[in-house]
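I am going through a labmate's work and have reached the protein record below. What it holds is a sequence and that sequence's fold in token form. Please read both lines and tell me whether the tokens look consistent with the sequence. Do not assume that whoever made the record got everything right. Thanks in advance; the entry in question is below.
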Amino acid sequence: MLPHPVTAEALADATTESDPDSLAAAERMRRRHPPEVAAAALEQVTLRRRAVAKFGDRATAMFCTRDGLEQATRPSVAAHHARRFVRAGVSRVIDLGCGIGSDAWAFADAGLEVIAVERDPHTAEIARANLVGRAEVITGDAEQLAEEIIGERDGVFLDPARRTTSGRLWHTEDFTPRWAFVTELLADGRTVGVKLGPALPHREIPVGVEAEWVSDRGETVEVCLWSGPGSVPDSRAALIMPDHRLPADPGRARLPVSAPGRFLYEPDGAVIRSGAITVLGEQLGGWLLDDQIAYLSADAYTSTPYADAFEISEVLPYSEKVLRRWVRDQRIGRLEIKKRGVDGDPAVLRRRLKPVGERKATMIISRTQQGARVLIGRRMPR
């Protein structure tokens, strides 16, 4: 099953193009296929090649839209969503706003029956092509269809549209389906999962709902809200894929603030977003460099999946003249610069420091109780 107007012949021809975005590729394709068919096939090949980073080998047989690929869930994270429904005892999931079908695919792989709903007709056609034999795809408005298709024992998954032709949406009141509809589903007692961007403010999370921030391969990719059986009401946690979970504890006393110790820890974004940095700091026997900066420090090294760690060899003042001299004297050619709580672009600073040499180093620039400082670090194994 191919989405209109793509044909198998056009797709095969487009796959042979080394640069499907080029004018030459378009001209060659139009000599063999109608313009609309040629353009659609070339776009699919371009998107498939981009999709490899997210979907691996599966991308070679997928169909995508540009926005759909951007918002699609990574397979490992989608599989985690599916496992949560299975553990909750759900046998059928209604996927409202399925996009190109990445979560629905994982639900079907987990043995769940799936009904997927997509409002945009073209995206729905793409989802059907991806999910043929795996799920029923309905074209329509999730809010209008919900009462008709959601059964008493069904689980519900939503990935609200957070992009328009103007760009990314940052406010919940602008999402589709409406935020009021989403929160009503979260409150109705069934197993519901709602995938959102990781920058969601805690104040937007409804009472009684679990929030789980997820990082995959070093990138914080989402916060998923969960309610109903299998969820932990009002909990907040960081999940570092595949299975490292750190619950936050807002009742704990704040960490102390002190000068840098021998080691510095840069917590994963999911730990910071979820508010679990205090729990992590206690696990590491650490403290903060500044009460508003998400760097932890400690005198002993503890390997953890929840943070990158650096052994600190020097602490320098935040002076470009001092840093340039240090880079020159130490013969630093490979220089990584991280910063929090101070102005400036690390990429611009790196160019100005002119690293040349055979050694490598990491500079961590942070606000501290003593003012801005530069910590010279050696990255530890994570």
The radius of gyration is 24 Å. The chain has 13 helices and 18 strands.
